[in-house]
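Hi F.,

I've been meaning to write this up properly since the lab meeting, where we talked about keeping a consistent format for the predictions we share between groups. The idea is simple: the sequence comes first, exactly as it goes in, then the structure tokens exactly as they come out, then a line or two of notes. No screenshots and no reformatting. I'm using this chain as the first example so we have something concrete to point to.
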Amino acid sequence: MLRAFASLFFYGRFFVPFSRIGLARRQRGWQAYPERLDGQTWLVTGASGGIGAAIARMAHARGARVLAAARSAEKLAELVRAAGGGDRMLPMRVDFSSIADTRRFVAELAGRGERIDVLVNNVGLLLDRFQLTAEGFETSFGTNLLSHFVLGEGLREENLYAEGAVVINMSSGGMYGTPLRLAEMAARSAREYDGMAAYAMHKRAQVELTRAWNQRWQGQPRVYVMHPGWVDTAGVQTALPGFRAVLRRHLRTPEEGADTALWLGTTRPPLAPEGGIWLDRVLDPEHAFALTRKTAIDAAQLHGFLAAQARATGG
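Output, unedited:
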């Protein structure tokens, strides 16, 4: 009962800014920007569907060469067919729930001599039931966060970012509902696991990981964190059917959710020292409630925690 009330309060608080209503309001202040991406290479994870596929299609349509990374070979093949074939939409099969496969992918990119202009860490999932990977990680933690860390760090260690490159971490509005707690975020048993809370913490952690990378990397590459608002994707249909049933006509399209990623990757605005999270081309505060500030975990501690988790797999 308490959780239902909290969810109702949360959805009521964010209905306008996260729905198509908020998008329409902010679109009034948008200005045209150069949209051509010729000569750039974009790496998009979770590119087989939803927002990731929309980002891949939109970057490709603007002239970018797109490395579309995801687990499903069939869905990636369909993405390539929809893009008209050619050599600028490259399907790359990776299982981001596996840290070993994420490392293999980095090694493959290094072997190909790739230079990445924009990395979009988009892959993510919300699971109701607790699942462990073969490496001993809860599946959504490995997919939503640890693989992002290993990929982002690996590309830098291998010097695969182009000059002036950008990393875009795809968070979620759900992060506004939770502080950052390391143990709960990386649950090791079904007893400890709450899928909705874990997902929100993974997305909160992406905000702090963005801060950690900007502190450590000093703009090479520059790192942003964004969220797409409430988007009608297959993931939402599966994980949140009740939410979708009630709000379906107010949900954004994948292309609308993808817009800020294209804008960030193209315009590359200055980094804000105070942080923030981008929505609809506007830098919003990282916190909406005092509760989410009540954490002893900072960016450096999160980075150390993720590095330790990655080392546990032999990296």
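Notes:
The mean pLDDT is 92.
The two ends are 44 Å apart (CA to CA).

If this format works for you, I'll send the rest the same way.

G.
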